Amino acid sequence: MLKKSIVGLTFLLVLLLLVSSVNASNNGTDDIVSVETDETVSIEESSYDSDEFASMVEMLEDESDEVLSSVKDDEISSFEENNNVLGVNLPPYTAYNVKIDHVEKDNNEYTIYTFISDVSHGYDEDYVFDMNFYDSNDVLKASGRFHGTYSYPSLIGRTIDANQLEQGIYTIKLVNYVDKHIMDTAELVIGPTYVDNKYKNVNINAPNAYYNQNKKISYSFEGNFKGSFNIYKDNSLKYSKKIDTSGYRDGIFKYNKHSYTYAISNLKDIGKFVVKIVDSTGKVATQSTFKIVKAPTISISDDFSTQMGAKETIYLHVFDKDWNEADIGGTAKFKINGKTYTAKVKNSLAQVKVKLPFKAKTYKCTAKYLGDKHFKGSSEKFTITVKKDITAKKTTTVNKKKTTSFTVVVPVKLNQYTSKTVGKYKIVLHKYITKHSTYDQINITLDLYKNNKKIKSSSSVYKTKLWFHLKSGSWVYSGVNNYGKISYNKITYNQFLAVDKAKVTVWVKS
Protein backbone atom coordinates (compact mmCIF):
# COMPACT_ATOMS: atom_id res chain seq x y z
CA MET A 1 0.00 0.00 0.00
CA LEU A 2 2.81 2.40 0.97
CA LYS A 3 4.63 1.49 -2.28
CA LYS A 4 1.52 2.35 -4.36
CA SER A 5 1.19 5.74 -2.57
CA ILE A 6 4.80 6.62 -3.42
CA VAL A 7 4.23 5.78 -7.11
CA GLY A 8 1.05 7.88 -7.16
CA LEU A 9 2.82 10.90 -5.63
CA THR A 10 5.62 10.61 -8.17
CA PHE A 11 3.13 10.58 -11.04
CA LEU A 12 1.44 13.72 -9.69
CA LEU A 13 4.78 15.51 -9.42
CA VAL A 14 5.55 14.72 -13.08
CA LEU A 15 2.17 16.07 -14.17
CA LEU A 16 2.76 19.31 -12.20
CA LEU A 17 6.17 19.77 -13.86
CA LEU A 18 4.71 19.32 -17.34
CA VAL A 19 1.86 21.76 -16.71
CA SER A 20 4.19 24.44 -15.29
CA SER A 21 6.45 24.02 -18.35
CA VAL A 22 3.55 24.68 -20.75
CA ASN A 23 2.38 27.74 -18.76
CA ALA A 24 5.87 29.23 -18.79
CA SER A 25 6.12 28.83 -22.57
CA ASN A 26 2.85 30.70 -23.18
CA ASN A 27 4.39 33.86 -21.57
CA GLY A 28 7.21 34.16 -24.30
CA THR A 29 7.25 35.00 -28.05
CA ASP A 30 5.42 32.99 -30.66
CA ASP A 31 8.62 31.37 -31.88
CA ILE A 32 9.60 30.19 -28.43
CA VAL A 33 6.09 28.92 -27.81
CA SER A 34 6.04 26.81 -30.93
CA VAL A 35 9.45 25.30 -30.22
CA GLU A 36 8.78 24.47 -26.53
CA THR A 37 5.28 23.06 -27.27
CA ASP A 38 6.83 20.66 -29.76
CA GLU A 39 9.40 19.57 -27.22
CA THR A 40 6.67 19.04 -24.60
CA VAL A 41 4.55 17.00 -26.96
CA SER A 42 7.46 14.81 -27.91
CA ILE A 43 8.27 14.24 -24.27
CA GLU A 44 4.66 13.31 -23.50
CA GLU A 45 4.58 10.80 -26.32
CA SER A 46 7.81 9.12 -25.29
CA SER A 47 8.54 7.08 -22.21
CA TYR A 48 9.45 9.23 -19.22
CA ASP A 49 13.01 9.25 -17.93
CA SER A 50 13.80 11.79 -15.17
CA ASP A 51 17.55 11.80 -15.84
CA GLU A 52 17.04 12.38 -19.58
CA PHE A 53 14.58 15.24 -18.90
CA ALA A 54 17.00 16.94 -16.50
CA SER A 55 19.90 16.74 -18.95
CA MET A 56 17.70 18.14 -21.75
CA VAL A 57 16.76 21.20 -19.66
CA GLU A 58 20.41 21.74 -18.73
CA MET A 59 21.45 21.56 -22.41
CA LEU A 60 18.86 24.15 -23.48
CA GLU A 61 20.03 26.50 -20.74
CA ASP A 62 23.66 26.13 -21.87
CA GLU A 63 22.75 26.89 -25.53
CA SER A 64 20.80 29.97 -24.45
CA ASP A 65 23.86 31.31 -22.59
CA GLU A 66 26.05 30.74 -25.67
CA VAL A 67 23.69 32.72 -27.95
CA LEU A 68 23.51 35.66 -25.55
CA SER A 69 27.27 35.83 -25.09
CA SER A 70 27.94 35.76 -28.84
CA VAL A 71 25.72 38.80 -29.32
CA LYS A 72 27.63 40.62 -26.59
CA ASP A 73 30.98 39.68 -28.13
CA ASP A 74 29.99 41.31 -31.46
CA GLU A 75 29.66 44.66 -29.64
CA ILE A 76 26.91 45.79 -31.98
CA SER A 77 25.67 49.33 -31.33
CA SER A 78 22.00 49.96 -32.13
CA PHE A 79 19.84 53.02 -32.67
CA GLU A 80 16.60 53.61 -30.78
CA GLU A 81 13.56 52.48 -32.77
CA ASN A 82 10.80 55.05 -33.23
CA ASN A 83 8.01 52.52 -33.80
CA ASN A 84 7.21 48.93 -33.12
CA VAL A 85 7.62 46.74 -36.20
CA LEU A 86 4.83 44.46 -35.11
CA GLY A 87 1.59 45.31 -36.84
CA VAL A 88 3.23 46.98 -39.87
CA ASN A 89 2.38 45.54 -43.29
CA LEU A 90 5.91 44.47 -44.27
CA PRO A 91 6.65 45.32 -47.95
CA PRO A 92 9.06 43.52 -50.30
CA TYR A 93 12.02 45.55 -51.62
CA THR A 94 10.26 45.79 -55.01
CA ALA A 95 7.56 47.98 -53.47
CA TYR A 96 9.80 51.02 -52.92
CA ASN A 97 13.23 52.49 -53.62
CA VAL A 98 15.58 53.74 -50.95
CA LYS A 99 18.98 55.32 -51.59
CA ILE A 100 21.60 56.92 -49.37
CA ASP A 101 21.46 60.59 -50.31
CA HIS A 102 24.00 62.50 -48.18
CA VAL A 103 25.51 62.91 -44.74
CA GLU A 104 25.56 65.95 -42.47
CA LYS A 105 27.93 66.29 -39.53
CA ASP A 106 27.27 68.33 -36.39
CA ASN A 107 30.05 68.18 -33.81
CA ASN A 108 30.45 64.48 -33.17
CA GLU A 109 27.21 63.32 -34.75
CA TYR A 110 26.63 62.10 -38.29
CA THR A 111 23.13 62.26 -39.77
CA ILE A 112 22.67 59.90 -42.71
CA TYR A 113 19.83 60.92 -45.01
CA THR A 114 18.03 58.38 -47.17
CA PHE A 115 15.70 59.16 -50.04
CA ILE A 116 12.60 56.97 -50.22
CA SER A 117 10.45 56.84 -53.35
CA ASP A 118 7.44 54.78 -54.37
CA VAL A 119 7.54 52.01 -56.96
CA SER A 120 4.08 50.41 -56.70
CA HIS A 121 2.34 53.84 -56.88
CA GLY A 122 0.14 53.11 -53.90
CA TYR A 123 -0.79 55.46 -51.09
CA ASP A 124 0.47 55.44 -47.53
CA GLU A 125 3.13 52.91 -48.45
CA ASP A 126 4.90 51.01 -45.69
CA TYR A 127 8.66 50.80 -45.49
CA VAL A 128 10.83 48.80 -43.12
CA PHE A 129 14.58 48.57 -43.64
CA ASP A 130 17.73 48.34 -41.55
CA MET A 131 20.78 50.57 -41.81
CA ASN A 132 23.80 48.42 -40.97
CA PHE A 133 27.39 49.57 -40.51
CA TYR A 134 30.25 47.15 -41.31
CA ASP A 135 33.95 47.68 -40.65
CA SER A 136 36.77 46.87 -43.09
CA ASN A 137 36.59 43.20 -42.06
CA ASP A 138 32.85 43.09 -42.88
CA VAL A 139 31.94 42.82 -39.19
CA LEU A 140 28.63 44.44 -38.20
CA LYS A 141 29.37 47.31 -35.78
CA ALA A 142 26.11 49.27 -35.63
CA SER A 143 22.54 48.92 -36.82
CA GLY A 144 19.37 51.04 -36.92
CA ARG A 145 15.88 50.54 -38.30
CA PHE A 146 13.66 52.81 -40.38
CA HIS A 147 9.95 52.00 -40.55
CA GLY A 148 6.69 53.82 -41.10
CA THR A 149 4.45 54.93 -43.94
CA TYR A 150 4.71 57.64 -46.59
CA SER A 151 2.60 58.88 -49.48
CA TYR A 152 5.23 60.79 -51.50
CA PRO A 153 9.03 60.73 -52.01
CA SER A 154 10.86 62.05 -49.00
CA LEU A 155 14.21 62.40 -47.22
CA ILE A 156 14.52 60.62 -43.89
CA GLY A 157 17.56 61.04 -41.67
CA ARG A 158 19.08 58.94 -38.91
CA THR A 159 21.76 60.23 -36.54
CA ILE A 160 24.64 58.20 -35.16
CA ASP A 161 27.01 59.34 -32.44
CA ALA A 162 30.60 58.98 -33.64
CA ASN A 163 31.52 57.73 -30.18
CA GLN A 164 29.70 54.50 -31.04
CA LEU A 165 32.28 53.77 -33.76
CA GLU A 166 36.04 54.11 -33.96
CA GLN A 167 37.63 56.32 -36.62
CA GLY A 168 37.85 54.55 -39.95
CA ILE A 169 35.91 53.64 -43.05
CA TYR A 170 32.59 51.80 -42.74
CA THR A 171 30.29 50.31 -45.34
CA ILE A 172 26.65 51.28 -44.91
CA LYS A 173 24.11 48.76 -46.20
CA LEU A 174 20.38 49.45 -46.42
CA VAL A 175 18.72 46.05 -45.99
CA ASN A 176 14.99 45.48 -46.54
CA TYR A 177 13.53 43.95 -43.37
CA VAL A 178 11.24 41.33 -44.85
CA ASP A 179 13.49 39.75 -47.50
CA LYS A 180 16.99 40.97 -46.48
CA HIS A 181 17.59 42.47 -49.95
CA ILE A 182 20.45 45.02 -49.98
CA MET A 183 18.83 48.12 -51.46
CA ASP A 184 21.83 50.51 -51.44
CA THR A 185 25.38 50.82 -50.12
CA ALA A 186 27.75 53.67 -49.38
CA GLU A 187 30.98 54.20 -47.51
CA LEU A 188 31.16 56.47 -44.47
CA VAL A 189 34.44 57.87 -43.15
CA ILE A 190 34.33 58.50 -39.41
CA GLY A 191 37.10 60.98 -39.07
CA PRO A 192 38.89 62.92 -40.03
CA THR A 193 40.63 59.76 -41.25
CA TYR A 194 43.63 59.59 -43.59
CA VAL A 195 42.66 57.64 -46.73
CA ASP A 196 45.37 56.58 -49.18
CA ASN A 197 44.71 53.40 -51.14
CA LYS A 198 40.95 53.21 -51.52
CA TYR A 199 40.31 53.14 -55.24
CA LYS A 200 38.51 51.30 -58.02
CA ASN A 201 38.16 51.21 -61.82
CA VAL A 202 41.87 51.68 -62.58
CA ASN A 203 42.32 51.84 -66.37
CA ILE A 204 45.23 52.23 -68.79
CA ASN A 205 45.06 52.94 -72.52
CA ALA A 206 48.53 52.42 -73.99
CA PRO A 207 48.44 52.45 -77.82
CA ASN A 208 51.16 51.15 -80.10
CA ALA A 209 53.09 53.97 -81.77
CA TYR A 210 55.83 54.87 -84.17
CA TYR A 211 58.99 56.34 -82.73
CA ASN A 212 58.51 60.03 -81.87
CA GLN A 213 54.83 59.83 -82.82
CA ASN A 214 52.48 62.24 -81.10
CA LYS A 215 50.50 59.63 -79.16
CA LYS A 216 49.74 59.48 -75.45
CA ILE A 217 49.19 56.88 -72.76
CA SER A 218 46.09 57.74 -70.76
CA TYR A 219 45.32 56.30 -67.35
CA SER A 220 42.64 56.94 -64.74
CA PHE A 221 41.16 55.69 -61.48
CA GLU A 222 38.40 56.55 -59.04
CA GLY A 223 38.99 57.29 -55.37
CA ASN A 224 42.15 57.89 -53.37
CA PHE A 225 45.37 56.41 -54.73
CA LYS A 226 48.93 56.61 -53.49
CA GLY A 227 51.59 54.96 -55.63
CA SER A 228 53.24 55.38 -59.01
CA PHE A 229 52.89 55.14 -62.78
CA ASN A 230 55.78 53.03 -64.13
CA ILE A 231 57.01 52.08 -67.60
CA TYR A 232 59.38 49.13 -68.06
CA LYS A 233 61.35 47.73 -70.96
CA ASP A 234 62.95 44.30 -70.54
CA ASN A 235 62.16 44.52 -66.77
CA SER A 236 64.17 47.74 -66.55
CA LEU A 237 62.38 50.85 -65.25
CA LYS A 238 62.37 53.52 -67.98
CA TYR A 239 60.03 56.06 -66.41
CA SER A 240 58.24 56.57 -63.11
CA LYS A 241 55.83 59.21 -61.86
CA LYS A 242 54.36 59.46 -58.37
CA ILE A 243 50.57 59.50 -57.98
CA ASP A 244 49.05 60.81 -54.77
CA THR A 245 45.40 61.75 -54.31
CA SER A 246 45.37 60.66 -50.66
CA GLY A 247 44.29 62.88 -47.77
CA TYR A 248 42.06 63.24 -44.74
CA ARG A 249 38.41 62.49 -45.39
CA ASP A 250 35.22 62.82 -43.34
CA GLY A 251 31.65 61.85 -44.25
CA ILE A 252 30.45 59.89 -47.28
CA PHE A 253 33.47 58.69 -49.25
CA LYS A 254 33.21 59.66 -52.92
CA TYR A 255 35.10 57.89 -55.69
CA ASN A 256 36.08 60.97 -57.67
CA LYS A 257 37.69 60.25 -61.04
CA HIS A 258 41.31 61.26 -61.71
CA SER A 259 42.83 61.17 -65.22
CA TYR A 260 46.39 61.62 -66.51
CA THR A 261 48.33 61.35 -69.78
CA TYR A 262 51.93 60.67 -70.77
CA ALA A 263 53.48 61.42 -74.19
CA ILE A 264 54.97 58.25 -75.71
CA SER A 265 57.46 60.35 -77.67
CA ASN A 266 59.22 61.14 -74.37
CA LEU A 267 60.59 57.59 -74.21
CA LYS A 268 62.96 58.14 -77.16
CA ASP A 269 63.25 54.39 -77.70
CA ILE A 270 61.72 51.51 -79.62
CA GLY A 271 60.69 48.03 -78.45
CA LYS A 272 58.06 46.38 -76.26
CA PHE A 273 57.07 48.17 -73.06
CA VAL A 274 54.99 47.34 -69.99
CA VAL A 275 53.15 50.08 -68.12
CA LYS A 276 51.96 49.46 -64.54
CA ILE A 277 49.94 51.37 -61.96
CA VAL A 278 51.35 50.30 -58.57
CA ASP A 279 49.96 51.43 -55.20
CA SER A 280 52.09 52.21 -52.15
CA THR A 281 51.66 48.68 -50.79
CA GLY A 282 53.33 47.23 -53.91
CA LYS A 283 50.06 45.94 -55.35
CA VAL A 284 49.77 46.23 -59.15
CA ALA A 285 46.36 47.82 -59.65
CA THR A 286 46.48 47.25 -63.42
CA GLN A 287 48.97 46.96 -66.28
CA SER A 288 49.17 47.01 -70.06
CA THR A 289 51.70 46.51 -72.86
CA PHE A 290 52.48 48.53 -75.98
CA LYS A 291 55.09 48.69 -78.74
CA ILE A 292 57.10 51.50 -80.27
CA VAL A 293 58.39 50.69 -83.76
CA LYS A 294 60.56 52.49 -86.31
CA ALA A 295 58.81 55.51 -87.75
CA PRO A 296 58.28 56.02 -91.47
CA THR A 297 59.83 59.14 -92.94
CA ILE A 298 59.17 61.64 -95.71
CA SER A 299 62.10 62.88 -97.78
CA ILE A 300 61.98 66.24 -99.56
CA SER A 301 64.47 67.49 -102.14
CA ASP A 302 63.13 70.20 -104.40
CA ASP A 303 63.47 70.69 -108.12
CA PHE A 304 65.52 73.72 -109.05
CA SER A 305 67.23 75.48 -111.94
CA THR A 306 70.75 76.79 -112.15
CA GLN A 307 73.49 77.77 -114.60
CA MET A 308 75.85 75.58 -116.54
CA GLY A 309 78.89 74.52 -114.52
CA ALA A 310 77.62 76.09 -111.29
CA LYS A 311 78.48 74.65 -107.90
CA GLU A 312 75.24 74.03 -106.01
CA THR A 313 74.33 72.72 -102.57
CA ILE A 314 71.75 69.95 -102.83
CA TYR A 315 69.53 69.43 -99.81
CA LEU A 316 67.53 66.48 -98.50
CA HIS A 317 65.11 67.33 -95.70
CA VAL A 318 63.74 64.36 -93.75
CA PHE A 319 60.49 64.54 -91.72
CA ASP A 320 58.58 61.97 -89.72
CA LYS A 321 55.15 60.82 -90.89
CA ASP A 322 53.44 63.78 -89.19
CA TRP A 323 55.70 66.30 -90.96
CA ASN A 324 57.62 66.98 -87.77
CA GLU A 325 61.33 67.56 -87.59
CA ALA A 326 62.76 65.02 -85.19
CA ASP A 327 66.12 63.82 -83.95
CA ILE A 328 66.62 62.10 -87.29
CA GLY A 329 70.15 60.96 -88.01
CA GLY A 330 71.82 58.43 -90.26
CA THR A 331 73.02 58.67 -93.83
CA ALA A 332 71.65 59.98 -97.11
CA LYS A 333 72.77 59.28 -100.66
CA PHE A 334 72.29 61.52 -103.70
CA LYS A 335 72.46 60.18 -107.26
CA ILE A 336 73.05 63.06 -109.67
CA ASN A 337 74.06 62.72 -113.31
CA GLY A 338 75.22 59.13 -112.77
CA LYS A 339 77.34 59.91 -109.72
CA THR A 340 76.56 59.01 -106.08
CA TYR A 341 77.24 61.43 -103.22
CA THR A 342 76.97 60.51 -99.52
CA ALA A 343 76.12 62.86 -96.64
CA LYS A 344 75.34 62.57 -92.95
CA VAL A 345 71.85 63.50 -91.81
CA LYS A 346 71.99 65.93 -88.91
CA ASN A 347 68.91 67.47 -87.33
CA SER A 348 66.82 66.02 -90.18
CA LEU A 349 68.90 67.70 -92.90
CA ALA A 350 71.52 66.34 -95.32
CA GLN A 351 73.40 68.38 -97.90
CA VAL A 352 76.08 67.91 -100.55
CA LYS A 353 77.86 70.38 -102.82
CA VAL A 354 77.88 69.34 -106.45
CA LYS A 355 79.49 70.92 -109.51
CA LEU A 356 76.92 70.63 -112.26
CA PRO A 357 77.74 69.83 -115.89
CA PHE A 358 78.07 72.48 -118.57
CA LYS A 359 75.47 70.87 -120.75
CA ALA A 360 72.11 72.64 -120.60
CA LYS A 361 69.39 70.05 -119.94
CA THR A 362 67.13 68.68 -117.17
CA TYR A 363 68.73 65.98 -115.05
CA LYS A 364 66.71 63.40 -113.15
CA CYS A 365 68.10 62.84 -109.64
CA THR A 366 67.37 60.73 -106.57
CA ALA A 367 67.93 61.47 -102.89
CA LYS A 368 67.62 58.52 -100.54
CA TYR A 369 67.54 58.48 -96.74
CA LEU A 370 68.89 55.12 -95.52
CA GLY A 371 67.21 55.22 -92.09
CA ASP A 372 68.64 54.61 -88.61
CA LYS A 373 67.72 52.64 -85.47
CA HIS A 374 64.62 54.76 -84.92
CA PHE A 375 63.45 55.72 -88.42
CA LYS A 376 62.73 53.86 -91.62
CA GLY A 377 64.31 54.93 -94.89
CA SER A 378 62.64 56.95 -97.64
CA SER A 379 63.56 58.50 -100.96
CA GLU A 380 62.69 61.42 -103.20
CA LYS A 381 63.07 62.04 -106.91
CA PHE A 382 63.81 65.56 -108.11
CA THR A 383 65.20 67.38 -111.13
CA ILE A 384 67.96 69.89 -111.73
CA THR A 385 67.48 72.02 -114.80
CA VAL A 386 70.69 73.53 -116.14
CA LYS A 387 70.10 76.65 -118.21
CA LYS A 388 72.23 79.24 -119.90
CA ASP A 389 70.27 82.27 -118.68
CA ILE A 390 70.75 81.88 -114.90
CA THR A 391 74.00 82.69 -113.11
CA ALA A 392 75.19 82.43 -109.56
CA LYS A 393 78.14 84.78 -110.08
CA LYS A 394 77.88 88.31 -108.77
CA THR A 395 78.48 89.94 -112.15
CA THR A 396 78.47 88.05 -115.43
CA THR A 397 76.88 88.17 -118.81
CA VAL A 398 74.00 85.93 -119.77
CA ASN A 399 72.47 86.43 -123.20
CA LYS A 400 74.39 89.73 -123.35
CA LYS A 401 72.51 91.06 -120.29
CA LYS A 402 74.18 92.02 -117.02
CA THR A 403 72.93 90.09 -113.94
CA THR A 404 73.68 90.84 -110.29
CA SER A 405 73.14 88.39 -107.43
CA PHE A 406 73.44 88.62 -103.66
CA THR A 407 72.41 86.66 -100.57
CA VAL A 408 71.04 88.18 -97.39
CA VAL A 409 69.33 86.97 -94.18
CA VAL A 410 66.10 88.84 -93.40
CA PRO A 411 64.25 88.55 -90.05
CA VAL A 412 60.63 87.39 -90.28
CA LYS A 413 57.87 88.51 -87.90
CA LEU A 414 54.16 87.80 -88.02
CA ASN A 415 52.02 90.70 -89.27
CA GLN A 416 55.06 92.91 -89.74
CA TYR A 417 57.13 94.18 -92.65
CA THR A 418 60.82 93.38 -92.24
CA SER A 419 63.67 94.34 -94.56
CA LYS A 420 67.37 94.16 -95.30
CA THR A 421 69.35 96.53 -97.52
CA VAL A 422 72.29 95.49 -99.73
CA GLY A 423 73.78 98.46 -101.54
CA LYS A 424 71.06 100.04 -103.64
CA TYR A 425 68.75 97.01 -103.22
CA LYS A 426 66.29 96.36 -100.39
CA ILE A 427 64.38 93.12 -99.76
CA VAL A 428 61.08 93.48 -97.86
CA LEU A 429 59.27 90.45 -96.35
CA HIS A 430 55.73 90.43 -94.94
CA LYS A 431 54.42 87.43 -92.99
CA TYR A 432 50.64 87.25 -92.41
CA ILE A 433 47.74 84.81 -92.03
CA THR A 434 44.87 84.48 -94.49
CA LYS A 435 41.72 83.10 -92.87
CA HIS A 436 39.47 80.81 -94.90
CA SER A 437 36.16 79.21 -93.96
CA THR A 438 37.70 75.85 -93.03
CA TYR A 439 41.39 76.62 -92.49
CA ASP A 440 44.03 79.32 -91.97
CA GLN A 441 46.91 79.87 -94.40
CA ILE A 442 50.29 81.47 -93.64
CA ASN A 443 51.92 83.56 -96.38
CA ILE A 444 55.17 85.45 -96.84
CA THR A 445 55.40 88.13 -99.52
CA LEU A 446 58.69 89.34 -100.97
CA ASP A 447 59.20 92.75 -102.56
CA LEU A 448 62.43 94.03 -104.09
CA TYR A 449 63.31 97.72 -104.18
CA LYS A 450 66.09 99.49 -106.08
CA ASN A 451 66.95 103.00 -104.97
CA ASN A 452 63.73 102.91 -102.87
CA LYS A 453 61.62 102.15 -105.95
CA LYS A 454 59.72 98.90 -106.21
CA ILE A 455 60.97 96.71 -109.04
CA LYS A 456 58.40 95.36 -111.48
CA SER A 457 57.19 91.88 -110.55
CA SER A 458 58.29 89.74 -113.46
CA SER A 459 60.39 86.59 -113.67
CA SER A 460 62.28 88.23 -116.52
CA VAL A 461 63.48 90.93 -114.10
CA TYR A 462 64.59 88.85 -111.10
CA LYS A 463 64.25 85.53 -109.33
CA THR A 464 64.91 84.41 -105.75
CA LYS A 465 66.03 81.33 -103.91
CA LEU A 466 64.86 80.99 -100.26
CA TRP A 467 65.62 78.99 -97.16
CA PHE A 468 63.39 79.23 -94.08
CA HIS A 469 64.89 78.99 -90.61
CA LEU A 470 62.91 76.61 -88.39
CA LYS A 471 62.54 76.67 -84.61
CA SER A 472 64.67 73.52 -84.36
CA GLY A 473 67.65 75.47 -85.72
CA SER A 474 67.76 73.88 -89.18
CA TRP A 475 67.00 75.48 -92.52
CA VAL A 476 64.43 74.17 -95.00
CA TYR A 477 64.98 74.90 -98.67
CA SER A 478 62.06 76.50 -100.47
CA GLY A 479 63.52 76.31 -103.96
CA VAL A 480 63.59 78.93 -106.69
CA ASN A 481 60.64 81.30 -106.53
CA ASN A 482 59.35 84.04 -108.76
CA TYR A 483 58.58 87.42 -107.31
CA GLY A 484 55.46 87.62 -105.13
CA LYS A 485 53.61 85.58 -102.49
CA ILE A 486 55.25 82.44 -101.12
CA SER A 487 53.11 79.66 -99.61
CA TYR A 488 55.27 76.74 -98.61
CA ASN A 489 53.32 73.49 -98.08
CA LYS A 490 56.16 71.08 -97.31
CA ILE A 491 56.34 71.93 -93.64
CA THR A 492 53.54 72.02 -91.08
CA TYR A 493 51.42 75.05 -90.27
CA ASN A 494 53.05 75.40 -86.85
CA GLN A 495 56.55 75.15 -88.33
CA PHE A 496 55.80 77.83 -90.90
CA LEU A 497 54.26 79.96 -88.15
CA ALA A 498 57.49 79.67 -86.12
CA VAL A 499 59.82 80.69 -88.99
CA ASP A 500 61.85 83.61 -87.60
CA LYS A 501 64.15 84.45 -90.53
CA ALA A 502 64.71 83.73 -94.20
CA LYS A 503 67.89 83.45 -96.23
CA VAL A 504 67.25 85.00 -99.63
CA THR A 505 69.42 84.81 -102.73
CA VAL A 506 68.39 87.25 -105.46
CA TRP A 507 69.33 87.37 -109.15
CA VAL A 508 68.37 90.67 -110.71
CA LYS A 509 68.92 91.80 -114.29
CA SER A 510 70.17 95.32 -114.61
Descriptive report:
By secondary structure, this protein is mainly beta. 14% of the residues lie in helices and 53% in strands. It has 4 helices and 35 strands. The protein has helices at 2-25, 30-45, 50-74, 493-498; strands at 77-78, 96-106, 109-118, 125-134, 140-150, 154-161, 168-176, 182-195, 198-205, 209-210, 216-224, 226-233, 236-244, 247-252, 257-263, 271-279, 284-293, 297-300, 304-307, 311-320, 331-336, 339-344, 349-355, 362-369, 378-387, 395-398, 401-411, 416-422, 425-435, 440-450, 453-454, 462-469, 475-481, 484-486, 501-509. The strands form 8 sheets. The chain has a 6-stranded mixed β-sheet with strand order 1-5-4-7-8-14, with no helix packed on it. Strands 10-17-16-12-13 form a 5-stranded mixed β-sheet, with no helix packed on it. Helix 1 runs antiparallel to helix 2 (30-45). The radius of gyration is 45 Å and the shape is elongated. It starts with a helix and ends with a strand. 21% of the residues are buried. Residues 1-88 and 389-401 have low confidence and may be disordered.
Q: How would the blueprint of this fold be written?
A:
Layout: H1 2-25, H2 30-45, H3 50-74, E1 77-78, E2 96-106, E3 109-118, E4 125-134, E5 140-150, E6 154-161, E7 168-176, E8 182-195, E9 198-205, E10 209-210, E11 216-224, E12 226-233, E13 236-244, E14 247-252, E15 257-263, E16 271-279, E17 284-293, E18 297-300, E19 304-307, E20 311-320, E21 331-336, E22 339-344, E23 349-355, E24 362-369, E25 378-387, E26 395-398, E27 401-411, E28 416-422, E29 425-435, E30 440-450, E31 453-454, E32 462-469, E33 475-481, E34 484-486, H4 493-498, E35 501-509
Parallel strand pairs: 1-5, 10-17, 19-25
Antiparallel strand pairs: 2-3, 3-6, 4-5, 4-7, 7-8, 8-14, 9-11, 11-15, 12-13, 12-16, 16-17, 18-20, 20-23, 21-22, 21-24, 24-25, 26-27, 27-35, 28-29, 29-30, 30-31, 30-34, 32-33, 32-35
